[in-house]
Structures are given as structure tokens and as C-alpha cells.
Amino acid sequence: MIPELGHFALALAVALAFAQGVIGIFAPGLRDPRAMRGTPALALSHFLAIGAAFLALIYAGVVSDFTVENVANFSSAAVPLLYRITGTWGNHDGSMLLWCFILSLCGATVAAFGNGLPASLRARVLGVLGLVSGGFLLFTLTVSDPFTRLWPPPLDGAGVNPILQDPGLAFHPPVLYTGYVGFSVAFAFAIAALIEGRIDAAWGRWVRPWALISWCFLTAGIALGSWWSYYTLGWGGYWFWDPVENAALLPWLTGTALLHCAIVVEKREALKAWTVLLAIATFSLSLSGTFLVRSGILNSVHSFAAAPDQGLFILGLLAITIGGSLLLFAIRAPILAATGIYAPLSRESALVLNNIFLCSIATVVFVGTLYPPFVNLLFGIQLSIGAPFFNETVLPLAGPIILAMGVGPMMAWKRAALLPVLRQLWLAAAVGLLVFLVMAANRHVIAAVGLAGGAWVVMAALTDIAGRIRLFRVSPGSSLARLWALPRAAVGATLGHIGFGMMVLGIAGMTLATQKVIVLKPGQSTQLGGYTWTLDDIHDAPGPNFSQRVADISLSENGKVFMTLHPARRFFSAQKVITNTAAIRTNGFQDIYAVFAAEPAGSGGAELRLNRHPLAPEIWLGGLVMALGGGISLSDRRLRVGAPARKKPAGAVA
Amino acid sequence: MRGAKKRRLYLVLAIGLCLSAAVGLSLAAFSSALTFFLSPRAVVAKHPAPGLNFRLGGIVQVGTVKTVINAGTPTTSFRVTDGQASVPVVYTGLLPDLFREGQGIVAIGAMNASGQFAADEVLAKHGSTYMPKDVEESLKNAGKWNPAFGPAPAADTWNTMKVKGSGS
User: What interface predicted TM-score (ipTM) does this complex get?
Assistant: First the structure.
């Protein structure tokens, strides 16, 4: 019964979403205030309907209702409760529902907290969100229905894909999706502004928090996914330039650009058309990223939920959404004239430079990701573009960004002088240079460049904040008071930059990783990275829906054992799949990483992969700090207090 | 409005410089990072020059996997087949979890002087029924399996399919 109710709620949501879309977009043009007031209510009920459908699916998963095909195929009675819940979105149909649920949640949030918005703008924003949601809900309902019944039901489900049975991956999709989908709000604001034909600082103040929230989630989602592949796939790799990863990276790049140039719109009322274009591009890339991967057009090593037969519907939806919005932009963009003027050397210019480089990187990644399927489609040639392409193109383009990142935030608006800024940054430059020289002297040139860049970014951000709170020039207490009084947006931005610097440090540190593949018998030991690794024992251990073999490894330095590792091989009998569970110990500055790869027949021992990864934790810590910086920036008073209520100067209408 | 014009000039200059850098880097990287996919049949027919990097995809032939442990480091040799031809492969290092006989895999590397494919990397997807897309394509072209007529034949039957002109 419950799945039928869910199915009905889904159908209801389609109707409500389209009603919200049509009324929201046309009511302001007809100057019908009652219809305009109705759109928030529609958005809320649309959210409730999808929420009910989503809960129904989770319920079916929790009680293991195997008459529902989705549950029967991707869950089983033996699966722990957490994965019975998360399993509902670990597959194509369920993840579509999750996607729509988050989209409707965004709409409901705009409806609930958008009282300060002009009524016509709010109606149009909700209208755009309603149309997008309606399209994808229709797809879910007709082509990929998660509530399809199965008769006769199997005795037990097929079980969760073992590799997905992991806390990191359980929360990765919702976080990543929230990031992807959150950009729909910035997109809706952009489209609404194009229809209205005006953008002002108030618009920027609305778009920025939404871009910021989505960016935080996207950053955290990417970091989580990377961390997951690092510790589960057992290769010790954290980024493979795989199409799925690139699909997440692309909106992150343009979203980061959007984040930065929305500041310019808000503060200086310049770069309006560009901001609108970035908002459209970011959401378009989010959409195409999610759906090109699911439709099977992009071929990936680790996409778990592909359904190639549904590709055409998705392609149609993408074409309408992206093509339509770009067409609207082409027609309406000339109306959005800039009013703010700035010199070539100013904060604005620095932000423009950041945008140019981020978009260049995005273009290169886009070309590298889409070229192989494109060539295959046109000429039938099968080729692939591997990590070297992306390393050779992205890293040189990232260099100037890293250099400019230190200087940009300290430049003044409108017109700035470079020399005083550089004079303040002597310490950061000196630290960077020192790191470079020390590492280069040890012949680690690539690591030297990376570590110097990371150190420069972190030091420059710290210098900036130290200058603002007048550290060491006034008493520590009053410095602390100044820190507290600083605009949260400034603190957040600094943290964001520090996080990025940490990530650069981590990535550079990983190039110094040492590793070894070796077969050891119990009692034997080997040397790696200055430690002695001894295999003590291999034994069996029980698990909930798997059996496992565990290797006990102890690490010692100068004869003293200081760490034991227990990598395992898990055998999932339901799917007949073996997974390796890596053992990772971290002290915050390096990871010790061991994988129990196999028990080669006849050797009587274990094949082990032992790694020492200097600075690896900084990659994900950096991602976390970036997301945290975004969160702090979000708590800025300026964004919380109803800024649009502030009196606008007469003639602010562009 | 001399200022506005000058500003626009700077902007165009910056964008032009950055874009040309991006294009230049891409073109330079294209030549080294583009790798073609070859099926065992194509390898036997075309004899790619030793040292030329490419991706080899097919089914791991049953009964051909041998692992030799040399000073603690395992070296695995096996044959990759598409049902029409097969190519010997050597790989030193840790194979992915799902590497086994009868599994569809993609190996990246180059032919060595002794006519073996020396793989730098072996990819097998995490999924027991999964077939890499390239491999699926090459099996279709070899006339051994068409996805339109159901799932791929059972892995261990690949051997008994006629292997013509299995190279070297």
C-alpha cells in the first residue's frame, strides 16, 4: 500500500510542479497578485508531495518490501539498517527521486524565506524551479519509476553493491546532489532576472548565499567522494580524472567563479551579464554532469547507476533546459548594463582574472572529458584521454591562480597599487621560496613547486588576516576582539583560501608517496619509508553479511612497535564479490596505508600493498576547511539580515 | 570613455592570452595523452610498434593466468582474448580485486620487444556482471556476442570459442 501512496504522491508532485512553473512564470506578466502569492504555497506543497514519495521509498527499503523492484534489486534482509536506507538512493531510479527531492527542498526554502524578495521576482524564480523540477519528475514518473512492483517477489533481495556498503559513500550522494541542485536556485534567479530585465546589488545579495551553500556542499561532496575512493578502492589514489569526477569538478570550477564574481555584482554592480552566464553555465554543467554519466554517454570506471536506454528523454530535457536558457541569455543579456567602473589594477580585476583562469581550466577539462565520446559518435574511433592530459593542462593553468590568490584579497576595490600589497606579503613569499629551495635541493621538483605554492597561499591568507586584526601591533586581546568583529565573509574567504592551500600542499605531498607490493609469510618483515613492517598473522573474522580474512601487520621504528594495522579481504556471498578493506592510520600529516591484496596460492603468505603518504590527510582536510569557510561566510550579518529591505537609491534600476 | 576602452582592451588581452595558453597546452597534451583502444584481433592484425602506448581490452582467457613472485614482487602473465585472437600480457604489481579468469578487463601499456603486451595498469570494474564498454564493442565487432541477444556468454566458455591465429 505504502509504495502506491508514494507513487501517487509522485504523480501529484508532477502536477503541482508544473502548476508552480506555469503560474510562477506567467503571473507576474499578467500582473495578477493573487496568482503570484499562490506560487510559494504551490512550492511548499510540491515539496511535501515529493517528501511523502521519498519517505515511502525509504519505508519500503527499511521494511525490506521485496515486491518493490527497486528494493529487491538493491537491498536484502541481511543488509544493515543504515544501508537499507541509503540503498534507496544508491541506484538510478532512487537517486532520481533524491535529486528531485532536493530540488523541491530548494524551492520550498526560497518560498519560505523569500518574503523580502519583490513578489514578481520570487514568483518567477519559483516558476523556473517548478518547470525544471516538473521536467525531471515527469522523467522519474514515466521512465524510471522507483515504485515499480515485482510479482512474484523474490525471497530475498540481491543486496547492496558491497563497494557501496560504506559510510563514506552512504552520505556522499546526498551531499554531492545538494551541491549540484543548489545551483538551480542561482540559475532560477538568473533566468528570472533575464525575464525581468534587471539586476542590482540586491539580486547579488540573494544569489551569493545560494551559490555559497551549493558550493560548500559540492566541495564537501567532492572531498568525500575522493576520500572514499582513496580508502576503499585500495589503490591509494584519490583522483583519477575519471568522467564522473570531472562531471563534479566542472560545476565546482564555474561555481567557484560564480561565487567570486557575485561579490563584484553585489559590491560594485559590475560584471552582471557575466554572472548571469556563469549561473546558467554552472547549473547546466551540474545537470549534464549528473545525467550524461547516468545515461551512459560518458563511460566511467566507477559509475554505479547507469541506464543507457533512458538517455534520449534526458538528452531532450537537457537540450530544452540548457538551450532555452542560453537562448534567453542571448536575447536579453544586452539589457544588463554595468554601472561600476574599475581600474585594470583593482580587486575587481583580480576577481576577473580568477574567473578567466577558472573558466579556462573548466574548458580544458570539458574538452578532455567530452572529446572521446564525441569522436566515437562521429567517427567510430575508440580512444581515451587519460590523467596525463589533465595533469599537463590543468596544473600549468592552476599556477597563476595560486600566485594571484595570495595577492588578490589584499587589493583595494576600484583602484589598487600592487607594490604595498607585495611589500606586506614578503614573509609569505620568503616561506614559499624557502620550501621550494629545500625541496628542489632534494631533487623533488614537482613537489617543490606544489609545496611552495601551497605554503604561499596559506601564508598569504594568514598575513591578510593578521594585517586586518593588527596582530603583534596591538595587544593579543584586542587582536582577538578585532578578529571577532571582522565581517564573517572576510573570515570565511580567508579560511576558504587556507583550505585550498592545504589541499595544494596535500596533493604536492602525495607526489612524494612511497609504496611497495610484496608477498610476506607470517613472521616476515620488510622495510619501507623508514619503518619495519611485519606481518604477524593472517586469520578469519566474522562480519554481518560478509566473511573476511584479516592480516595483522605491525610497524616498528628502531625496534619499537608503534602501530598495528588490520587490512582485510571481505567476501560478500550474496554477490560473490571480494573487496579489500584498506587499513589506514593517520597522524594528521601522513597516512600509513596497507592493503591485503590476495593470498597467492602456494606462497603460504599474503600479498600486501604498503604505502606511506606524506601530507595526504591535508587533501581532504583542505576540502573540509574550504567548505567550513563557506559556511562561516554564510553566517555574515549582511546575508542574514534582510538586506533587500534596505532602501535602494533612486535610479538603481539598470 | 578612453578608460572604458582601455579596460576592455586589457580584458580582451587577458582572455586571449589565457585562452591561447589553454589551447596550446591542450594540443601539446593531446599528442602524448591520447591513447587508442585496440582489441586483441586488431593487435594481431596491425602489430603495433613496440613502445607505442595503447589500451588493450578483452576477456582474460581461462587457464592462462600465472603469477611468479620475484623478490616479493608478484608478476602476473595471462592472455587477453576477444574470441578471435588473443594477446599475451605481463603485468608487475597489484591486480584489482575483480581481476580473475573470464573477467572483461582493460589493460593500458605497450608491446615489448618479445611480443608481449607489457601493462602499466590493469582495470577491472567493481561488478561481477560488468563488461567494459570498449570490450563490449570489440566483442560485438568480433561477432562473438551481441548485447541485443541477451547477456554475454558465460566467462569460461570464451576459451572454447574458436581462437583463430592467436598471435606469437
Answer: 0.71
